[in-house]
């Protein structure tokens, strides 16, 4: 019986030692989730000219203080994107327009900033990521930036998937590691951007009627207002009644010896008799523009300006007025 008990004790000790060795390799460290990238609401003009950029951290957290001297590595793999083109993620909407998104491993993480495309991977050696250690976690900065693009207004979205694999030391002295924590996890990052309507430029040259001896001698002046606005946008264009209007009639003014004199005129859409104003049906719809560029962004509006010929001719002088062109989406 005594020999039997000795054998049992030895077997139990063997089981205990095997369990302890297995416990040393359990995955104590975890990948922090979730990460969301929301660029917010941005004018289409800005989206077309300026990259929208956000930096995020891929963060591995552990329950104990990490051993910073021993070797290790963290591998970041750009596994996939919900929608992609040329190995880049693309933001999509209900329109056919898309906005490419660049994933960049920043200089803090990859020594030199490097774009990562779908299927690329980066191995971050201990010599680099030790500088990113904060007590019990590694925080590796990456950046997601849009590529400037002319697109229609709307809500754009996609998501990317990264696979993070680590082999880091949780117990060691100098260059030796007594206990490596190894693990792998996926990180799905939703990306969104809301694009709003806007106009990049409104070009409206001055109107000059020239000189004439009487009101009935002034000639009609043609003019063009040019707008560069959001691709595919629907809007109306208005012109206010100026600084000297009276009873819905536009007037240029000239002040002499304290007396303000008026010279009445008006502006009409194209060559019609439809007054171009700022309210209701007097506004000019984008669908009726004189010309529209292929990308639908640039539209022109031809008009005619006339001084009323049957008014009394006011005193000689230089008459002027200031008008405001507005766009309403």
Automatic annotation (TrEMBL):
Spore coat protein U/FanG domain residues: 189-325
Signal peptide: 1-23
Keywords: Signal
InterPro entries to which the protein is assigned, alphabetical: Adhesion_dom_fimbrial_sf, Spore_coat_component, Spore_coat_U/FanG
GO cellular component entries: pilus
Coiled-coil region list: none
Pfam families noted in UniProt: SCPU
Superkingdom, natural source: Bacteria
Gene Ontology process terms (BP): cell adhesion
Protein name from the UniProt record: Sigma-fimbriae tip adhesin
Lineage, uppermost ranks: Bacteria, Pseudomonadati, Pseudomonadota, Gammaproteobacteria, Enterobacterales
